[in-house]
Q: What sequence folds into this?
């Protein structure tokens, strides 16, 4: 059963959405506290999120941004905000659909169904700035082409992507590569990271691996200019 999470503070609307989606055959986890909504949604890992923008204490825009930085969960924005600038901002932050209240039940359910079909089979994909990585085959999809990465490069990129904006330690990378942090030469890790960096540069990727000395590694956007 597909799971559609609802992030809506207005009780009547939340109950209506829950009832409608359950009748359509979906499981419907709901959020009633929103301060750490992105973390809650990441932990729930639903198949789709229906997200209001006007929430108490936090902006739905911020939730969308934080969620899309860490996951590829599709987001359908359902809001009373009908200005074009709001819709464009939501799409810029990674939203997949934008509907304004009150929309017809049939339209909402059709958009939900279409989004779920669009993302079906993408559960193994991690999203980067301008690419997708299949974490089963380490196939990198970028610029309308695909490249199968060497296993170690794929493992490193997967670990860095899973970390989002957070630092990933050398120990975490070593564990990803060799399953242990014992008896691992730091130089071996650097050799593998250097190979990944060269591959990313050769593919013209917008992100690069940066190091915070003594703390760890993360992916950051290339600085233009």
A:
């Amino acid at each position: 059963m597909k799971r559609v999470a609802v992030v809506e503070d207005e009780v009547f609307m939340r109950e209506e959405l829950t009832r409608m989606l359950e009748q359509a055959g979906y499981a419907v986890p709901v959020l009633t506290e929103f301060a750490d909504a992105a973390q809650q949604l990441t932990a729930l890992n639903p198949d789709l999120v229906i997200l209001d923008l006007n929430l108490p204490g936090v902006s739905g825009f911020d939730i969308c941004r934080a969620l899309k930085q860490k996951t590829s969960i599709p987001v359908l924005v359902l809001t009373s905000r009908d200005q074009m600038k709001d819709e464009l901002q939501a799409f810029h932050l990674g939203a997949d659909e934008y509907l304004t209240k009150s929309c017809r039940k049939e339209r909402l359910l059709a958009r939900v169904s279409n989004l779920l079909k669009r993302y079906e089979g993408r559960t193994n994909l991690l999203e980067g700035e301008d690419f997708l990585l299949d974490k089963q085959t380490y196939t990198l999809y970028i610029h309308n082409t695909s490249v199968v990465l060497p296993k170690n490069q794929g493992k490193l990129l997967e670990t860095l992507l899973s970390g989002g904006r957070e630092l990933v330690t050398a120990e975490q990378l070593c564990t990803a590569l060799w399953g242990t942090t014992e008896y691992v030469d730091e130089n071996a890790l650097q050799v593998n990271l250097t190979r990944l960096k060269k591959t990313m540069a050769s593919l013209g990727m917008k992100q690069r691996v940066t190091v915070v000395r003594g703390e760890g590694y993360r992916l950051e956007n290339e600085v233009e200019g």
